Amino acid sequence: MTDATPPSPGRPRDGAPDVLPAGERATPLQSVHLALGATMTGFAGWRMPLRYGSERAEHQAVRTAAGLFDLSHMGEITVSGPEAGALLDRALVGQLSALAPGRARYTMICDASGGILDDLIVYRLTARDYLVVANAANTGTVLAALAERQAGLDAAVRDDRDAYALIAVQGPASPAVLARLTEADLAGLRYYAAEAATVAGREVLLARTGYTGEDGFELFCAPGDATPLWQALTEAGEPEGLRPCGLACRDTLRLEAGMPLYGHELTASRTPFDVGLGRVVKFGKPGDFVGRAALEAAAERAATSPPRTLTGLIAKGRRVPRAGYRVLDGANRVIGEVTSGAPSPTLGRPIAMAYVDAAHAAPGTGEVFVDIRGAREPCEVVALPFYRRPR
Q1: Domains in the chain with CATH codes
Q2: Which of 66, 198, 223, 247 is most buried by its number of CB atoms within 10 A?
Q3: Consecutive H or E run containing 174
């Protein structure tokens, strides 16, 4: 990371080149990112901003003020009909039929062997309408699974990726930023809730969730409204120190907050119980659901003979443990593997999440080491998350 001054988070500059590599999709905000001088990168089939200048400055803006993110690559799927809730109860591990309209829930979709196909946020919009938000790389998989599991139920599954753009405002100043643009009752909008609102004269679905460890909001809007909303939020956030933020700081923010990332902590080879998220599996809901028998067995294994446990590591030196690096004990035996790692701007030290043998995974069990290109980097085992926002 560098401390170079990032481009001013103001209005886009005219005339910025618009180059889209073959096979990648642009979000409705691509011209804005280019005008702001963003470093663009390919991600899950999309052209996305990696950073606008200093990753550290973007990260710290979210921790201390506010950051503005383009999340339009996420996959929106509408599930509707009289038996929409029953379909989601069958297809996912949670009991979404019990969700009240206006509320949201974190959940997962698994295969028949209990492996995680994706982690999701599901919003219940009305009594018979749900919005399922999937990770960009997995949207096609989730769509196909929902369609297959719909058989015999009076419910429809619709790919709505082209119907939405998605902008997030994250950080302690995010309520103050939004309050300048909307008459919505922000104080009354609970965590993991959503409601229809008008922001800067544009109709949005305003949600209060997030992936940074901070308070924040997501604005689901029509693609044509994305640029004026981004510009209005930028202007409203200027007094608060709001900055545009890219994927790089989004990753360090979620890592500090101990939030799992699909393809790293979450994969089809692991069940929710393997990753310490068995609480999202609702065995008590009525009816059967895909993966139930395998997940019951996984729950029993986790209770009696837990496999490797997801835990936190803080490096004692300056070298960064990266995904795929081996975790070793004092006798040089392999006891785990790093899934995500990065320098932590908040802690000032490298941090990582890793799956580690249960005997070594609890905080206070002693020093472990990460093999970094043949060198043993000593690490402290700590509980997740690394960071909790002040209350």
Answers
A1: 25-67+167-256 (3.30.1360.120), 73-163+271-304 (3.30.70.1400), 308-391 (2.40.30.110)
A2: 66
A3: helix 174-179
